[in-house]
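Molecular record:
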Amino acid sequence: MASPKPRGSSFATSSRTHLRPSRVTIDDSFLTETKNTQKRKLSQKQKTLSCQFSTGGHLSPWPTYTSGQTILHNRKPCSDDYRKRAGSWQQQQPLNTTKPRYLEQLENYLRKELLLLDLGTDSAQELRLQPYREIFEFFIEDFKTYKPLLSSIKNAYEVMLAHQRERIRALEPLKAKLVTVNEDCNERILAMRAEERYEISMLKKEKMNLLKLIDKKNEEKISLQSEVTKLRKNLAEEYLHYLTERDARKILIADLNELRYQREDMSLAQSPGIWGEDPVKLTLALKMTRQDLTRTQMELNTMKANFGDVVPRRDFEMQEKTNRDLQEQLDSLRDDYEEVRKEHEILLQLHMSTLKERDQFYSELQESQRTSTPRPDWTKCEDVVAGGRDRWQMLAEGKNSDQLVDVLLEEIGEGLLREKDFFPGLGYGEDIPPFLRFDGIVENKKPTKKDVVNLLKDAWKERLAEEQKEKFPNFFFNFLERRFGPGDAMAWAYTIFENIKLFRSNEVMSQFYAVLMGKRSESVYTKQKETIAQLLKEMTNVDSQNEGLLTMEQLSTVLKSTFPLKKEEKIQELMEAGGWHPNSSNADLLNYRSLFMEDEEGQSMPFVQKLWEQYMDEKDEYLQELKQELGLELRDEVTLSKIREALMNIDPSLDKQTLNSYLSQAFQLPVTEVPEEGEEEGIVIWLQTALERLHMADIRRMGPREQEPAS
C-alpha cells in the first residue's frame, strides 16, 4: 500500500495561508471568520484524509493484532483473573509488533501542522489547538460507533473554552480598573503620610513651645513663692512692732491717768472749801469709797481670773489661719519625707549591692593581679603574620587580647594546615562523628577560605530546600558525595572539618561547626536568616521610590516595628552599627542594602553582627530570668510542670505550640508526646541540663512579661 499523503502541496499552501497567524493583534471578528474558514477546510480535509488514513474502510487494530489473540470480555482491569489472563496473553505476543500506518500518518500530520504554526503571537495558543481538533475530527469520523460520544465530548470542551474566553474578556476591564485603583490608593497613602509628617513636625514644635512656657511659669512660681515668704516675714515683724507699740501706749495712758488722778487729789486737798466739810461725812464717804474700791478690786480680780487667757477674735482668726498654713506645710513635709525615706532605702540597697560588687571586683582584681602576666606587645606579630604590618593591623582592628589570641592561633593553624598533605583517619568508634568514621589516611584538599565558605553556603541552600530532613551529619556527608563523588567525599569531609574547627572567627564556619557538632540547633540559623530577610523586606517596602536609600527616622521606625520588644538603647545600638551617629541629623540618607552585604569570606557587616550579638544576649537574659523564676540551683532537679509554669510566668504571650516545642527541646521528647498540663508527674531533669538544651535551640521572648491591662 502506498503511503498516503495527509496533505497535498496545494492543500498545505492554502492551510499555511489560512492557519499561520500574523504578528499583529487579532480582534474577535477576525478570529470568528478564521474559525468559520477552518471549519469549512476541516470538512474538506475530513473527506479527503479519511480516505487516505484508512485502509479499506477499517482501522488497524495495533497493538492487539496477532495470531491467536483473545479478547477478555467483562473483566475488571485490576482483578487477579485479569492479571493472569493478561500475563498469559503478553507471553503469546510477538516481540516485533510495530505501530500501525494510520497512527504514524496521524502523528506525522500533527507534527507538520505544528511546525507550520507561528507561535510568536498572542493567538498562537488558540491556533495551536486547531491541528488537535482536526485529529479529533478524524477519530470521530472513522470511529462510527463512538461518534456520538466523542462529538459530545468535543462539544463540551468547545463550550467550556468559549465560556472561559468570555470570562477573560469580561475580566480585562476589571484588571485595568484594579491597577488604576491601586495607583490612586498609593497616591492617597503617600499624601496621608506627608500630612502626618507635617502634623507631627508641627506638634513637636508646639510641644517645645509649651515646654518653654512651662519652664517660664515654674520660674515665675518660684520667684513669687520667695516673695510671699519674704512678705510673710515682714508682716510678722510689723505685727510684733505694732503689738509692742500698743502695749507701750496702754502703759503710757495708765501713767497719764494716774498722774491726772494725783493732780485732782492734790487740787481737792488744797481747795479751801474742803476744810469746811463735816469730818463725819468725810469719814463716811471715805468708808464707802473704800468699800467700792474693794468691790471693784474683787470684780477686777474675778475678771482677770475668768478672762485672763482670752484673746481678741482678730488675733484668734489670724492664729487659726497661721495654724492651717503650718498644718498644710507639715503634711507636704511628711509626704516629702516619705518619698525621701523610700529613696533612701533604695539607695541603701543600691549601696549594699555596689559594695558587694566592689568587694567582688576587688577580689577579682587581686586575683587577676596575682595570676595575670604583663600585657603582650602585639606589634611583634607584624613580622610573623603573612602580609606584614598592614594585614596584622586589619586583623587586629577593634579586637581585645582574647580575640587577638584567636586570630594569631588561626594564622598559625592555617600555616600548619597548609603544610599537611594527609590526615590520619579517626577510626570507627561510637564517639567519632559519622562523617569522619574512616580507618587509614585521607588526602588534604587544601582549599582556600573562600572555597570553604562557598561550599558551606551551597550546603545550607540544599539543606533548606530539602523536603525530608535527615540528621545533619548524614546530610553533610551525602552532600559531599553528591558534589565530589564517593571517592573524594571522605577527604573533603576531613578537610572541611579541620578548616571550620580552626577558623572560629569566621561566622559561616563557626555556625556550621556548631550545628554539625550538635552544639546548636539548625532552627537558630534558619530563624536568623528569616529575620534578616524580613527586615530587608520591610526596608524595601518603606523605600517607595526603590532608590535603595532610607532616612535615619525611617530606619528607626522599621527597626521598632520589626523588633517591638527591643529597648530604646538596643535600637540605638543597631542604628549606630548601621552608620548613624548621635550628632548626625535624622534626615541623613543611608544605603540600607549595604547593611546586608558580605565579603568574599562570608563575614557580615557590623549591622548584622550586632543583630546576632543582641539575639545571643537576649537568649542568655531569657534563660537567666527562667532560672531566677524557678529559684533552684543548677544541680537541683526540676519537673516539667515547674518549667512550664515558670515559662508562662516570665513570658505570658507564649502560645501552646511554642511552649510545647520549648519543653520538647528541654526534655528531649517529641512534640506530640509532651504531656498536657496536670499530667507531668514523674518527668524530672537536672536544671543545668535543661538550660543547656534550651540554649542550643532557637528560644526567644514572645511578649512582655507583664501583660498590659485591657483598655
